[in-house]
Amino acid sequence: MSNTRECLQLLQLVTNAELKESPVYVPMHPFEELNEQEVKHIDSGLSPSEQVQQAINCLPLPSEKIVNGLKPSFRRWTIMDYYKAYSSGEITPCMVAEQLVTAIRESSSPPMDMAFFINYDAEDILRQAKESTRRYGRGEPISALDGVPIAIKDEIDCSPYPTTGGTKWLHKFRSCKGDACCVMRLKSCGAVIIGKTNMHELGAGTSGINPHYGATRNPYNPGMISGGSSSGSAAVVAAGLCPVALGVDGGGSVRMPAALCGVVGFKPTFGRVPHSGVLPLNWTVGMVGVLAGTIEDAFIVYAAINGPLPSHETSAIPLPKVYFPLLQSTNSVSNVILARYGEWFSDCGDDIRTCCSQALHQLSEKFGWKTVDVTIPDIESMRLAHYLTIGSECTAALSSYLEKLDNAESGWDLRVALCVYGSFSGEEYIKAQKLRSRQMQFHRNIFTKADVIVTPTVGVTAYPIFDDALKTGELDYINGAALVRYQIAGNFLGLPAVSVPVGYDKNGLPIGLQFIGRPWSEPTLIHIAYAMQSLCVSKYRKPQVFYDLLKID
Questions:
Q1: Which residues fall in a coiled-coil region (predicted)?
Q2: What is the per-residue burial (b if ≥16 Cβ within 10 Å, else e) of 171-191?
């Protein structure tokens, strides 16, 4: 319990802080025109499938056709690969679904026990695939997402499944009454929802080790963690079971596992994607995010799920305009300025520091983009203020359930987390929101000098899963702190952020580089991520656990 005492002692930094700023309770930024380069304005009122088509129109022409096979270097199948294969009749959604169900069963059983999913329904997967196959047979697919397998983190409502939040008890108190808005939009595009992915219990940790549903294992080395809390969503994409999955990012929970599993993790600006139908565990720091094999696929799914909030999610500020990046023109994006806080950037493992520094150098060499040095004050205080905020919101959201809960139903790590969360006071919560206000001012100033802030995504690569953690959950605050080190601004301040795979450590484990943008700057972030991906894609490696569902020569 010494880790808990240290955590509480550190939180005194927030408790004892003297702050003149007014508190900011919700990081909802007023929309402003950013005059971004190479973007296209998207009309409001388009359907999700129409927005998907708009995104596809922004993609570069493929350098090779699917029928010509893959280059020798490894790459995952993309949404457009599936769409072209289905449209040609070479493969059908039913054929993919049958292979997928077999792969899920195999990976979920001994000796693999990858623990990718909490719940999946083979009959429902095959039903959706049959409907999609009929649409392609008639020449009437709904969109490029029609028949494409997509997984959903078990923090997001998705019928016909319960929403467990990674627990053994939450779904008993809170029933799933329908689809979350983001899931509804994907289904309206014809996507085949393949199940609910595993997650760290209640999102209260960073390892992805769940004592109830198993530790989600990293496809690059099954003895290592996949990261959390959207562990299953990152791992299924890395393993080739689907090109895209949805996660929820309350404290790096999309970007961390994306980096550890060698995939893209994209978290939009707070308020860009409706939060309705998502467990209300962290309503001012959490955002639905996308995990994908490529930035193009993350963009396509972002196009499907973003848009005006449902009528019951009212906002006092005008709805933000939507712009999409013209990725066929990324090479024309010039004069990008990247902000780097050197001491913070270097606070990571040697392999990560070297790899991420080399990636930055490549961007400079290829595109002529510049890096400027900045300082971000009080980073540790911001991390603790975020922890206090997410913990307070979690206990407030679950208070009626926690009164009835038998602690024995939860893992040890969640029990400790809830104990710490319950110790926070209203005064401390308000001080944390004052710190949020201060940090928003700090970051606003940085964005007058630079387009994005660049950091490693995490401070360590994937570490081993120990047997004693499998039954109880894991309490590892040292590695946990290293994993969340670069995550907090995206959540606490509501900023968009993306993690892109840029290389591997000496053990072959993936490394990610993160770009954090100003509010509503998703097009610029996607441009930058696409540029970074283009420089690294030839070095991408095939994971130890990988399923080739299209099997096209």
A1: none
A2: beebebeebbbbbbbbbbbbb
Contacts with 27 (C-beta within 8 Å, 6 or more apart), sequence order: 270, 284, 285, 436, 440, 492, 493, 494
CB count in 10 Å sphere of residue 552: 17
253 is catalytic: yes
Catalytic entry in 84, 153, 187, 267: 153
Pairing of strands 149-153, 244-249: parallel
- Which is the catalytic residue, given 229, 233, 381, 410? 229
Angle 31-33-35 from CA coordinates, rounded to 5°: 150
Kind and range of the H or E run holding 288: strand 287-292
CA distance 134 to 143: 14
Q: pTM for the full model?
A: 0.95
* CB 469, CB 229: distance < 8 Å: no
Q: Where are the alpha helices (DSSP H) in 16-144?
A: 48-57, 79-88, 93-108, 122-137
Q: Which residues contact 475 (CB under 8 A, 6 or more apart)?
A: 3, 412, 413, 416
Distance CA 357, CA 182 (A): 36
Residue 321 bears catalytic tag: no
What's the chain's length in residues?
553
By percentage, how much of the chain surpasses pLDDT 70?
93
Please check whether residue 497 is in contact with residue 267, taking contact to mean a CB–CB distance below 8 angstroms. Answer: yes
- Whether omega for the bond prior to residue 325 falls within 30 degrees of 0, making it cis, is no
Q: Provide the sign of the torsion angle of the four alpha carbons 63, 69, 70, 72, taken in this order.
A: negative
Nearest-angstrom CA–CA distance, 97 and 84: 16
As a whole number of angstroms, the distance between CA 242 and CA 76 comes to 9
The residue annotated as part of the active site, out of 107, 233, 253, 499, is: 253
Q: Phi first, then psi: what are they for 358, rounded to 5°? A: -65, -40
Q: Report CA torsion sign: 513, 537, 96, 544.
A: negative
Query: What per-residue confidence (pLDDT) applies to 427?
Result: 93
CB atoms within 10 A of CB 242: 31
Residue bearing tokens 């047997």: 467
Angle between the N-to-C axes of helices 379-402 and 412-421, in degrees from 0 to 180, rounded to the nearest 10: 100
User: Could you give the 3-state DSSP secondary structure of residue 152?
Assistant: strand
Band (pLDDT 50/70/90 cuts) for residue 62 is confident
Q: 11 Cβ partners below 8 Å, 6+ apart?
A: 384, 387, 388, 424, 428
- Least confident window among 339-343, 351-355, 397-401: 397-401
